[in-house]
Amino acid sequence: xxxxxxxxxxxxxxxxxxxxxxxxxxxxxxxxxxxxxxxxxxxxxxxxxxxxxxxxxxxxxxxxxxxxxxxxxxxxxxxxxxxxxxxxxxxxxxxxxxxxxxxxxxxxxxxxxxxxxxxxxxxxxxxxxxxxxxxxxxxxxxxxxxxxxxxxxxxxxxxxxxxxxxxxxxxxxxxxxxxxxxxxxxxxxxxxxxxx
Length: 196
Description:
Elements: H1 81-88, E1 96-99, H2 105-122, E2 126-130, H3 147-158, E3 165-170, E4 180-185
Parallel strand pairs: 1-2
Antiparallel strand pairs: 2-4, 3-4
Domain Smr: 98-186
Protein name: DNA mismatch repair protein MutS
Region (Disordered): 1-22
């Protein structure tokens, strides 16, 4: 076994030059543009070589270090994982509820504003907002429904209490499912001590 010699590897054949798979668009205003089919490119046409982009030495490549996502603000803000899990499993019992089902839009808005005000004064953390089912697609409905549910997001975002709302989530089926929402309120901030 001392005389083992490796087998000779065949050399690969050189690659044939190919034409690009697409052709440039004809110039504007020129109705008689020619179409170039792949493989039939004239010999005089030159193909541009790819350009290698070099990052400056003091700057990291954006592909290797993605930028962090900006922190989400407002009603879409993310709660910590334990809150989201508990809400999605229906383990959080709302301290109070606001029922907008069956009200007109203006009456529902007033009821929502009064209910949020009362819940904040009482120190509640989780409210159950009963809105009714969300609107159905045009093809599935004989009558319009879900006007209150469609407007609630805008109402909450523009409410005088919007700075006190931490998040809004769809309720668990035991609390109304898609016909209700959880409104998670922020804890009241402690007033700084007065120096007299």
